[in-house]
């Protein structure tokens, strides 16, 4: 038996292509081959006569690489057009869209629900999700559930007594947490959700049943959180690119802040996400995220961008202070570019 036959075989993980880096980019290979100039027969003869020390001059140095090398195609890129089309079609489905002004339409005459009380509920659901370390997309999905329910049903129809908006929020977080990650059911259940709603376990479970029925059991639509991840998937490849990671983090933060503003309910989740990514790119100074973002022009995003500025206004919405304090404690202060404001 040959000696090579005794060598251990590499593991399947070693042989499998990396899911993060994808396959080698042909442009990188071409650039590498262009950096080497092969000697002609005459040059080879002259180099041999001049000696080994002179032979190294036959290889030219490559031209300096661009400051931002072209990124490799991730695995599955050939399916991205289909994924993109599915996400965009789903967010536009009438069953997934809340009424653009349900406070004036569906909730006309109802007590206990205003733009300010909605912002307080969003803040409470966000804080609750962080406290129990729920999946990061939970607050966005819970807020979407609340908006869609209140577009279809009166707040007074919520099961239970007391603070019906709080009960609805507890039911929405419970349903959203189950959808985002069922493995977390050992962490949060009806008892914890009842604490958010300041109600009984029985009341929050009854409200959850009402909620999912009013939503037509459609719980999986994309949110702004979904689209921020989707739009930044190619720029965030690892911690070595600090600017890309900063854009991703700040875009998610701005999308979270947009949840507080009732005026953002009328925008598609992809518009909120694209506006957040655009502003984050401007703040960080990341040119790859300049408009257009995800096919949206600046004109198409301007109204949503203005709404995000409104959240940062001199008279901030309820919940702004706590969200901003959490951000600044970890990442420091930021300033939105004033010439993009409304």
UniProtKB/TrEMBL annotation:
List compositional bias (Low complexity) regions by residue number. Answer: 44-62
- Family statement: Belongs to the cyclin family.
- Keyword annotations of the record: Cell cycle, Cell division, Cyclin
In terms of CDD domains, this protein maps to:
CYCLIN_CCNO-like_rpt2
Q: Which Pfam families match?
A: Cyclin_C (PF02984), Cyclin_N (PF00134)
Give residue ranges for domain Cyclin C-terminal: 222-340
Question: Which segments does the entry list as coiled coil?
Answer: none
The record ties this protein, via PANTHER family, to: CYCLINS (PTHR10177)
The record's section on InterPro entries has:
Cyclin (IPR039361), Cyclin-like_dom (IPR013763), Cyclin-like_sf (IPR036915), Cyclin_C-dom (IPR004367), Cyclin_N (IPR006671)
Q: Which residues does the annotated region (Disordered) include?
A: 1-27, 41-77
Its BP terms in the Gene Ontology are:
cell division
**Which source organism does the UniProt entry give?**
Urochloa decumbens
Q: What is this protein called?
A: Cyclin N-terminal domain-containing protein
Cyclin-like domain residues: 123-213, 226-310
